């Protein structure tokens, strides 16, 4: 090629071409408490076993992400996903529910191809490179917005597996956010005779009734008496605390009957939790079970594996009511406004999505 031709090609290139030909992706970062930034990142070239994904939408985990947004997580807490970046001491790139299409696959990638719709436990980022085995190919017929619920469906499945509901159980679910609304549906599928939903927000109580709750109640002094009245004076067999509100745990303990079970699956971060362990808890032999999605109930292993749980969540996903749970969609650049809305007016939001196309 002649020197004059080379000069002409350089003149026609854009400034971006002259700086780098690498792919880029914009990512949401928390720079500090209640400080949201959009940062551009240069993506690495996919290796033989990697894929590059162009995001379509991602879901905000309102309970967990608002703890991070507000700085209510112990700064020394380790990151539990390889896709996360930074630290809880800030800045941090956080999030774990992204759906997109594969636009490039490495030479050694099997089972995924360009154009496949995938779910990845990935922060809110427009484009990203991950190992192919970190992606879950979504079944045909499932929309991106349905797929974005996969992480929450897995969490709900894990909670129900930890709860061991019995046919005919009377259950109470404290918290009608996304995970609570999914748990209500799964408890009914598992054979619960009734499910009472407790939430202070009217919109969420309405959604709980729409997806299968037998009764919806607001928390308050009357709550224990109303639950006793609805359970023939015995109390519930099972209560699940998924509200994220530290005060709800005592309410869950009070709602169950003798030898009842309380499953605690909320993450409270650094907020103190005051629990009354006298009276009914002690004399009523109430059992409290911890549920956390990163591990399975040891009593179920080795029959149950993470892969089996994911497969079940995928099977359930298309049959659960998820569309009514989406209350807001924001383009990625409006992330600061989205987090302010969730933090300041939680009564208006349930599932918030970021969109990228």
Task: Give structural notes.
- This protein has helices at 3-12, 15-19, 62-70, 144-147, 150-163, 178-189, 202-210, 223-230, 248-255, 280-283, 306-317, 335-344; strands at 24-32, 35-42, 50-59, 85-86, 92-93, 98-105, 117-120, 127-131, 135-137, 170-174, 194-198, 215-217, 236-241, 256-264, 287-290, 326-331, 351-355.
- By secondary structure, it is α/β, with parallel strands linked by helices.
- The longest helix is centred in the middle third of the chain and has 14 residues, at 150-163.
- The chain is globular.
DSSP helix count? 12
Largest sheet: 7 strands, mixed
Determine the N-to-C terminus distance. 39 Å
What oligomeric assembly is this protein in?
single chain
Percent helix, as a range, is 25-40%
Strand content: 25-35%
Mean pLDDT: 93
Which structural class do the helices and strands define?
alpha/beta
* Overall strand count: 17
Shape: globular
Quick tags:
single chain, 357 residues, alpha/beta, 12 helices, 26% strand, globular, disordered N terminus
What can be said about this structure in brief?
The chain is built from 12 helices and 17 strands. The chain has helices at 3-12, 15-19, 62-70, 144-147, 150-163, 178-189, 202-210, 223-230, 248-255, 280-283, 306-317, 335-344, and strands spanning 24-32, 35-42, 50-59, 85-86, 92-93, 98-105, 117-120, 127-131, 135-137, 170-174, 194-198, 215-217, 236-241, 256-264, 287-290, 326-331, 351-355.
Topology readout:
Layout: H1 3-12, H2 15-19, E1 24-32, E2 35-42, E3 50-59, H3 62-70, E4 85-86, E5 92-93, E6 98-105, E7 117-120, E8 127-131, E9 135-137, H4 144-147, H5 150-163, E10 170-174, H6 178-189, E11 194-198, H7 202-210, E12 215-217, H8 223-230, E13 236-241, H9 248-255, E14 256-264, H10 280-283, E15 287-290, H11 306-317, E16 326-331, H12 335-344, E17 351-355
Parallel strand pairs: 10-11, 10-13, 11-12, 13-14, 14-15, 16-17
Antiparallel strand pairs: 1-2, 3-6, 3-8, 3-17, 4-5, 6-7, 7-9
Helix pairs in contact: 5-6, 5-11
């Amino acid at each position: 090629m002649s020197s004059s031709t080379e000069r002409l090609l350089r003149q026609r290139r854009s400034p971006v071409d002259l700086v780098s030909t690498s792919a880029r992706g914009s990512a949401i970062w928390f720079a500090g408490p209640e400080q949201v930034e959009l940062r551009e990142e240069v993506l690495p070239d996919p290796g033989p076993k990697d894929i590059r994904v162009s995001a379509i939408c991602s879901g905000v985990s309102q309970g967990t992400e608002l703890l991070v947004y507000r700085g209510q997580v112990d700064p020394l807490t380790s990151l539990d996903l390889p896709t996360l970046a930074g630290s809880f001491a800030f800045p941090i790139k956080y999030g774990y529910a992204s759906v997109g299409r594969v636009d490039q696959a490495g030479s050694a990638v099997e089972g995924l191809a360009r154009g496949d719709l995938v779910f990845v436990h990935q922060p809110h980022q427009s484009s990203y490179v991950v190992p192919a085995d970190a992606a879950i190919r979504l079944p045909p017929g499932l929309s991106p917005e349905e797929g974005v619920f996969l992480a929450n469906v897995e969490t709900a499945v894990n909670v129900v597996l930890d709860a061991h509901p019995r046919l005919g159980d009377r259950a109470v679910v404290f918290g009608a956010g996304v995970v609570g609304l999914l748990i209500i549906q799964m408890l009914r599928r598992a054979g619960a005779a009734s499910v009472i939903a407790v939430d202070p927000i009217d919109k969420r109580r309405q959604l709980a009734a729409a997806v299968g709750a037998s009764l919806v109640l607001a928390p308050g002094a009357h709550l224990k008496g109303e639950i006793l009245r609805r359970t023939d004076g015995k109390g519930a067999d099972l209560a699940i605390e998924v509200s994220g509100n530290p005060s709800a745990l005592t309410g869950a303990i009070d709602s169950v009957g003798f030898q009842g079970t309380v499953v605690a699956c909320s993450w409270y971060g650094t907020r103190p939790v005051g629990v009354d362990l006298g009276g009914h808890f002690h004399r009523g032999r109430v059992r409290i079970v911890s549920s956390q999605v990163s591990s399975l109930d040891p009593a179920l292993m080795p029959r149950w594996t993470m892969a089996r749980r994911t497969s079940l969540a995928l099977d359930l996903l298309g049959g659960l009511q998820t569309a009514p749970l989406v209350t807001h969609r924001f383009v990625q650049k409006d992330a600061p406004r989205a987090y302010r809305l969730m933090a300041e007016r939680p009564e208006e939001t349930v599932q918030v999505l970021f969109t990228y196309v």
